[in-house]
Amino acid sequence: MDFTTLLEFPETKKSEWNAFVTGGVSHVPFLRYEYLKNWWRTRGGGEWGQNAQLVILSASENERLIGMAPCFVAEHDGKKELLFLGSIEVSDYLDFLVRPQHLARFTEGLLAYAKSTLVPQFGIQTVDLYNLVDQSPTVRALQNASATLGLPCNIVPLQKSPYIPLSGDWEGYLNSIDKKQRHEIRRKMRRMLELQPPANWYIASDPATIDAEIQEFLRLMAFDTQKKEFLTPAMRDQMVSSMREAFDSGSLQLAFLTIGEEKAAAYLNFDYLNRIWVYNSGIDPRFSEHSPGWVLLGHLLKWANENNRFEFDFMRGNEDYKYRFGAIDRSVIRATITL
Q: Fewer beta carbons within 10 angstroms: which end of the chain, N or C?
């Protein structure tokens, strides 16, 4: 397996890159070519400085592309490191772009290449991979490859990442969760139907208005003090362009709950590969007595069941409401390999 280093995004490999997302070891929207190219343009909404160096590792065999590791080199934790593109804050799940049958050889080859070539070329000391799902086969592949090469490998849990498996049956889902919570969801959704002016909800789908809808989402998001501080100009640029790209590719689920003419709550999700990925939300506090966030979440879960989505992924964070809706745990981890 021959590895090469790419110092810019390979436009000619865009379709092969995205094919690895759908057919590779990790099927997550944060690995899409368009998403990561935009992430790099803004350096993760300003999380990283301009001195970071793009380093995309490409592996081929008999002139056939076998896998890719979308990475960059930067100073982190007092060392020069090779990190996944998308690290650390705004991309919930990251991984290699490789099919399962090639993962073991790819991982061992990549670590050997990093030690023999990237250490002298870029001065890196560690390969530091954030936001791997603990269920990804890459975790074990990294442990095995590190052991084979005699390299120290440290696996550390970072955050819980709750999710809800879906059966396609809304009533069945409700019956599977805590009785008290089931009652609360039904009661809040029923009460919302009785409001005057009336309440409604929708998923933004009109190309003519999507840019305005994106700005409305950011307005609702900024009612939360912490989220307002998070939304720096660079982060707004990152989020707007990522939402627009997801809309253009058909994977944006931007949902609003309205009361009369007012937007009371919104969810920014990805609808990708028959799974809903819950990314962020916003609520107008003027309507908090009606629990618009909970009600909208209920409608989205109902929609996901009725539209054959097999999972509702809340992604990183162990907020209490996720478990009240019946989520079960998995985690994201950090794998650090010393070269």
A: N
